[in-house]
Amino acid sequence: MEFTAYQIITPLISFVAIAYAWNLVFKQKKTIWEALLWSVFWGFISVIAIYPNSLDYLTAITGIKDRENAVMVTSLGVLFFIVFYLVIRLENLEQRQTRMTRKLALKDIDKTKK
Amino acid sequence: MKIIAVIPAYNEGTRVGNVVSEVAKYVEKIIVVDDGSTDDTAQIAKKAGAIVLTHIENCGAGAATMTGIDAARMLGAEVVVTLDADEQHSSDDIPALLKPITDKKADMVFANRFGRRNNIPLIRRVFNGLGNIITFAATGKWVSDSQCGFKVFGPKAVSQVDLRMSGYEFCTEIVRESAQHRWRTAEIPAKVLYSEYTLAKGQSFANGVRTALKILLRSFLR
Ligand SMILES: Nc1nc2c(ncn2[C@@H]2O[C@H](COP(=O)(O)OP(=O)(O)O)[C@@H](O)[C@H]2O)c(=O)[nH]1
Ligand SMILES: [Mg+2]
Fold this sequence. Notes:
The structure holds two protein chains of two kinds. By secondary structure, chain A is mainly α.
């Protein structure tokens, strides 16, 4: 079996991501459970990279076979990523607003204490 | 031990006064966090004798609770009791919930509304069951009543708790924290009252779905 660069790099990235997750567990920033979920996710991705044939099953149910369809799937992937990115940005904005509101509220307690 | 109650309140002007004077029997100080209410929640809570902190904008029950806990820490609290402002919980349950903490048997106590005979609408039971399952999926820890606002934090939990989620997701986040920091937890049956008022104010289905999605997104991205 011959490997393409993609098939080598992807498992490497997955490995780093999984190691990173467990490192966070070690530093008590992530729970074991979350690291497990994370490992399953990345494990899945590297399996697909190493054995692309495992996707045959997916092909069978979606009917994605030829090149035109591949383009469509890729652009769907890009769109998905953009939405994902926006959701995260929105989350961050919301958190920032909450932090500000909370700080303002806590200023009052300093006053009541003195 | 210095016990402080934290009560998040959003437009509970008709209820919060009673809650404060009831809870005052069992704790040293009461902090009401007015979460951007458009009614007279803040004034009424103050009149009833609580320390009132105000969010200038509505941020959600989680953010309000964390503001209250932060304030309690600043005031030197060793134990923090959190409960809802809508008279759903009975302050007479506070001593029972405090007991595992004062006995040094637990770092955190969850009230369990399903642990005794309570008149809980079926739909609420279903939602809370789903909440428990999602919480278990995201944290790996099973709590019989994970979505209840009535809780007691012991000294260890008070010093370590750090909630980032602002909405109702915070209930799940607290379970997560307790698993992460290995707090010893206890569950004590507690009374709950579902009146027309609380049901009208309570959570919608859409809200529940949004909360669930947030929990999953968060637990994945951390
Ligand atoms: N609904 C709602 N409640 C809030 C908010 N911020 C703080 N709270 C308080 O959080 C507590 C729980 O709210 P409630 O809607 O009764 O939730 P439930 O009893 O779990 O269905 C109450 O004491 C509210 O006043 C908010 O933004 N929305
Ligand atoms: Mg309620």
